[in-house]
TrEMBL record:
Keywords: Endonuclease, Hydrolase, Nuclease. NCBIfam families: PRK09736.1. Pfam families: McrBC. The lineage of its organism: Bacteria, Bacillati, Bacillota, Clostridia, Eubacteriales. InterPro entries: McrC, McrC_bac. Its EC number is 3.1.21.-. The keyword Nuclease applies. It comes from the Bacteria. GO terms for biological process: DNA restriction-modification system. PANTHER family: PROTEIN MCRC, TYPE IV METHYL-DIRECTED RESTRICTION ENZYME ECOKMCRBC. GO terms for molecular function: endonuclease activity; hydrolase activity. This is 5-methylcytosine-specific restriction endonuclease system specificity protein McrC.
Length: 347
């Protein structure tokens, strides 16, 4: 079980805006569960956005009007016989806050009001919903999360991500009409958060490292690459010719049972080995070293993988990261990985 406060720290690395002054009070608050945490982040984020002003967009409106507005649609006016009521079918662009992102936020806040949330959180959400009076709700099961962000709406990026976490954490509504929440961060959600947290941690804390989630090209003897899967690394760290490829794994079980023996997940090991060997073959400079690591989130199982293997001239490590600790210890675990593979940075 990961302490809720550590979930906040992980989110703070993924969404750097949470380190801003406006979110400091959230960082110091104590939360009983993850839904309370995400609700607090959303409430604070919406409050900050309201001070800037809700984002507006030109949205096309169409309907029957007594006074002409925008373009007249004569064919539809005749078809609908709107002229009998002294009206015309018109279409025009309205500069409105009823855009898709605001609708997602309103839908999320409305769902939270139906959930098992504390009275304090619900009171704060109701106050904010007043400002969304002209914004329509969406069907939470049909939201399109593939949104485009730019400089005009960049402040919405974290808000929409938190909304995504909240809505996808919902389970079906009970007969009484109340919406309950499952273990809020299930394995699928935590897998993504865990991976992004590690990458963003290294980007922020080790600026001398080049940290990225780079693709690794297949080293082919010819140009035939039809149907080959993409090799997408989770985290790739590089510094002066040294490269460490990390595959972050968040599973309920860190090992697999094989003939009454616990072993590392074979598919994971094959994958990281393939990444390392193809990356090494890509490097033409002789002064380089490529290593790989499977970094599992520690579970409550008795046997935890913690091994170093030397395979075909490359170092392949299997480690666990204990997230059920004070964050200072988590920080040390992550730092030690860098110092082990990039000793010059330890000085």
């Amino acid at each position: 079980m990961i302490p809720v406060q550590n979930v906040y720290y992980m989110l703070a690395y993924v969404f750097q805006v949470l380190n801003a002054q406006g979110y400091r009070e959230v960082a110091t608050e104590s939360f009983d569960n993850a839904i309370e945490l995400c609700s607090a982040i959303l409430t604070k984020g919406v409050s900050v956005q309201l001070k800037r002003g809700l984002g507006r967009e030109y949205i096309e409106r169409k309907g029957a009007f007594s006074a002409v507005r925008g373009k007249i649609n004569l064919s539809e006016s005749i078809k609908e016989q709107s002229m009998l009521n002294k009206q015309m079918i018109c279409s025009f662009d309205d500069f409105s806050e009823n855009n898709y992102m605001n609708r997602i936020i309103k839908t999320t806040m409305a769902l939270l009001l139906r959930s098992d949330l504390s009275k304090k959180r619900k009171k704060s959400l109701r106050k904010l919903l007043v400002y969304f009076g002209n914004v329509e709700s969406l069907d939470p099961h049909r939201i399109n999360w593939r949104l485009q962000f730019n400089r005009c709406n960049a402040t919405y990026r974290m808000l929409i991500a938190i909304c995504n976490l909240i809505i996808k954490g919902l389970i079906q509504t009970t007969a009484s009409g109340r919406t309950k929440l499952m273990d809020f961060f299930d394995e699928a959600h935590m897998y993504h958060l865990y991976e992004k947290f590690i990458l963003e941690y290294y980007k922020k804390e080790f600026p001398d490292l080049h940290a990225s989630a780079s693709q690794i090209p297949w080293q082919l003897d010819d140009n035939e690459d039809a149907m080959l899967p993409m090799m997408q690394s989770d985290i790739m760290l590089s510094h002066r010719g040294n490269i460490l490829i990390i595959d972050a794994k968040y599973y309920a079980h860190t090992t697999q049972q094989h003939f009454n023996k616990r072993t590392i997940h074979s598919g994971n090991l094959y994958q990281i080995f393939t990444y390392v060997k193809n990356k090494e073959a890509e490097m033409t400079d002789q002064k380089h070293k490529v290593s790989g690591m499977l970094l599992y989130a520690k579970t409550d199982e008795v046997i935890q993988p913690n091994h170093v293997y030397h395979m075909s001239g490359n170092k392949i490590s299997v480690r666990t990261l204990d997230l059920n600790q004070d964050f200072s210890i988590i920080r040390k675990q992550l730092n030690d990985i860098v110092f082990e593979h990039f000793p010059k940075l330890a000085k």
